[in-house]
Design a protein that fits this description.
223 residues, alpha+beta, D-amino Acid Aminotransferase, Chain A, domain 1, Dna Ligase, domain 1, 2 domains, six-stranded antiparallel sheet, 6 helices, 14 strands, 29% helix
């Protein structure tokens, strides 16, 4: 379907699977899989932290973070934080939030921080007169107490270079901006081959404390 800024691909899972087809891109994608209780147990045990997200949707709506806490679990959803002694109890809460909607499980990334709050980056890439052009590259800092950085969830925006300077060791900003731009171009070429007609893409990148860039999500209707 083509409308507005071009073809829309709503499913996060379809876009993730497309990008996993390129080995150089795949190493930037956190382990992601369709939700099931079995996978949730496995991935939480393996990584210690995972993020659950609706297959369709945006704006940080519906995101859940699960963290292994000793023998139990911690669940973060919106402004609520809950603790569970059992896996079964935690899953019941997850399912109440999901309301049978299809979800993905993604390895949690411990993002670099600004003032103790996680920061990620939005790169907006738009096709104009047949040429792909960078329209924005900004950092987004989470509201105090939240793990989601979306502006509609109370996050605040700053220039990407400033965010990188404040969250990473000195001298890394220019390198990371260049890497995000090159990764955006490579991903876009792949997605455009798979889904002809797309005309606008919003890439959400996370950078961990070691400077590793992670592709958290790609939107075909970026705000």
């Amino acid at each position: 379907m083509v409308q507005g800024n071009g073809r829309q691909v709503a499913s996060k899972w379809l876009k993730t699977k497309a990008l996993l087809g390129d080995r150089r891109i795949a190493r930037h994608i956190p382990h992601t899989a369709p939700f099931s209780a079995r996978r949730l147990r496995e991935m939480t045990s393996r990584y210690g932290m995972v993020v659950l997200k609706p297959v369709r949707g945006g704006g940080g709506n519906g995101l859940i973070r699960i963290t292994k806490a000793g023998r139990g679990y911690r669940l973060d959803y919106r402004v609520r934080r809950s603790a569970y002694r059992s896996f079964a109890g935690m899953v019941r809460s997850v399912n109440r939030i999901r309301r049978r909607r299809p979800y993905l499980i993604q390895r949690g990334i411990r993002l670099a921080q600004v003032g103790g709050r996680p920061i990620d980056y939005r790169v907006k890439y738009v096709k104009q007169n047949g040429v792909w052009t960078f329209r924005a590259l900004v950092g987004r800092v989470a509201r105090k107490g939240l793990f989601v950085t979306n502006l509609c969830q109370g996050g605040w925006r700053l220039r990407a270079a400033e965010g990188l300077r404040r969250s990473l060791p000195p001298g890394r900003a220019a390198v990371k901006i260049r890497e995000m731009r090159e990764l955006t171009k490579r991903c876009t070429a792949l997605l455009e081959r798979r889904y002809p007609g797309i005309g606008a893409l919003g890439y959400d990148y996370g950078i961990d404390g070691n400077g590793q860039i992670w592709i958290l999500e790609v939107n075909t209707r970026p705000q």
